[in-house]
Amino acid sequence: MTFPERMLKIDRRIIFLVIGLCTLLPLLYPVGLPIKISSEVRGVYDHIESLPEQSVFLLSIDFDPASKPELYPQAIALLRHAFRKNLRVITMTLWVSGTGMADQIVTQVAKEMSKEYGTDYAFLGWSPGGQAVIINMGQDLYSAFPSDYGGRPTKELAVLNGVRNLKDVGYMVDLGAGKPGVEEWYVFGKDKYKFELGGGCTGVMAPGLYPLLRSGQINGLIGGLRGAAEYEILIDQKGQAVAGMDAQSATHIAIIVLVIICNVFYLSLRRAARAQGQAG
Amino acid sequence: MIFLRRQLPLLITLVAGLLFAAQYYVPHPASEQMLTSATKWLQIIGGFALVLGVTSLFHLHAVKIRRQEAGWGYSLVLYAGMLGTIAVGLWADGKESIEGVMTSFGWVYNYMMVPLQGTMFAILAFFIASAAYRSFRARSREAAVLLVAAVIVMMGRVPLGEYLVPLSGDVASWILNVLNASVRRAILIGVSLGAIALSFKIIFGVERSYLGGGKE
C-alpha cells in the first residue's frame, strides 16, 4: 500500500482526536478573534431596538436539549435585549421536550434582569397541535393557552393586557430547531395575522431559511452559534456563544485542512493510476 | 358498510378541504369563528396523537421483549426509562420545579435527558469530520464546484476563516444570499406546486391511500 493510499484509509480515531483537540484547546485558551456582524442578525436586533417600551414581544422557544448549544445562547441574548428595552415578553414553546428548558431560560434571564412574572413577562408553556396552536393563537390566544405553565389563567396576567391574538404582537421571534419552527410560524402565523417575524435556527438549518429572508417574509435570521455570538456582541454582553466561536473556528479550519489533504492524496492516486494506464 | 368505510370519509374530506381552502379568503366573523373551533379541535386531536404514539411505542417494544428479538435488552431499558419518567412526572405534577425547587421530574430532565441529547448531537461533529475526510472528494467537475463552495462557506462563517482570508466572509454571504436562496426558492416552488396538486387529488378523491389498502 502506497503512502497516499494509507493516508486515505487513515484510522478515524485520529480524526476524532484532531476534532477533540480543536474543540478543547480554544475553550481552555481563548483567542477572541473579532466577529463581524451580518445584516441577517442585525435585522432582528434593529427591529427590537425600534420597538417602543411596553411593546409585546413574543418568543417561541421551539427546540429541545439536542440543539441547546446553538439555540440556548440565542434565547438568552434575545431575552436580555427584550428585557433591557422594557418590552412585555411572552414566551412559549411548541416542542414538548423543550418545555423544562424553556422555563429555565426565561426564569434565569428574568431573575438576572429583575423582572416580575405576570407583569413584565410570562411563560405560557406547551400546548399540543403544532401548527394548529399557531392558527389558534392567531384567532384567540386565550383559547390556545387558557392557562400559563404554572397553571394561572392567562386572562389574569397583566403582561397580556390588550393582547387578544397574534395581531396584537409587536414582534415575534421563533427559535426553531425543526418542525414546527420558523417556516410554520410564517405560513400559519405571519402570512394570515400580519405581525413582524424574525427567526433563529441551528447552523445547519440556516441556508434553508434564506429564501424567506430574501423575500422579506422574515426580517432577520440568527443562524447557529455564529448568529448567537453576533447578537451577544450587538447587545454588548458576551456569553457562551462568543466563547464557543474560537472552538468552532478551529474545528472548521481542521475540517477544511482534512478535506484538502484527502483531495491531494486522492488526486495524486488518480494521476498515478492514469499514468500507469497510459504506460500499459 | 362500504358507505362508512369509503364514501363517508371521501365526502368529509371533500367538504372539509373545500370549506377550509375557501375560509382563508373569507374574513367574515362566522368564518373566523369556524376556524377558531376547528383549530381547537385540532389541538385536542393533537393531544390524542401523543397518547397514540406512546401506546404504539409501548406495544412495539413489548412484542420485541416477549419474542426476545435481537436487541430486546434495549427495549427493556426503554420500558424502564419511559415508565420511570412517567411515574416521576406524575409524582411531580409534570413540573420540573416548584417555587424554584427542582422536582424529581426536573432532575430526570436536567441530569439525564439534557446531557444525553446534548451528547448525541455533539458526537455528530466527530462523525461529520470523519465522513468529510472519506467522501468529500473532487470526483467530477460538479463535485469540485460543491467542494470549493463548501470550503468558502466554512471559512467565511467563522472568525478565524475571515481573519485568514478576509474576502471569504463576503463571498460566503453572497453564496448563501444569492446562489443558495435562488436554488432553494426554486425547490420550494416545485415542492409547493406538488403539494397543491396532491391536495386537489386528496380533496377530489383521486388519491385514496390515506383510507388504507392503497389505490383501488
Structural overview:
The complex is a heterodimer of chains A (280) and B (216). Chain A is an alpha/beta fold and 280 residues long. Chain A has eleven helices and six strands. Chain B has a domain at 138-206. In chain B, a hairpin with a 2-residue loop joins β1 and β2. The mean pLDDT of chain B is 90. Chains A and B meet through α2, α5, α6, α9 and α11 of A and α2, α4, α5, α6 and α7 of B.
Number of strands of chain B: 2
Strand order of the largest sheet of chain A: 3-2-1-4-5-6
Distance N to C terminus of chain B: 17 Å
Order of helices and strands of chain B: HHHEEHHHH
- Decide which structural class fits the backbone of chain B: mainly alpha
Shape of chain B: extended
- Count of DSSP-assigned helices of chain A: 11
Report the CATH architecture of the largest domain in chain A. Answer: 3-Layer(aba) Sandwich
Tally of helical runs of chain B: 7
How would a textbook summarize the main sheet of chain B?
2 strands, antiparallel
> Separation of termini of chain A?
20 Å
What oligomeric state do the depicted chains represent? heterodimer
CATH class of the largest domain in chain A: Alpha Beta
- What is the CA-atom radius of gyration of chain A, in angstroms? 23 Å
Detail the topology: elements first, then pairings.
The complex is a heterodimer of chains A (280) and B (216).
Chain A: H1 3-8, H2 12-28, H3 39-50, E1 56-62, H4 68-84, E2 88-93, H5 99-112, E3 121-126, H6 131-139, H7 141-144, E4 171-176, H8 182-193, E5 197-201, H9 206-214, E6 221-223, H10 224-234, H11 240-279
Parallel strand pairs in A: 1-2, 1-4, 2-3, 4-5, 5-6
Helix pairs in contact in A: 2-11, 4-5, 4-10, 6-8, 10-11
Chain B: H1 2-23, H2 29-67, H3 72-91, E1 97-98, E2 101-102, H4 104-135, H5 141-156, H6 159-164, H7 168-203
Antiparallel strand pairs in B: 1-2
Helix pairs in contact in B: 2-3, 5-7
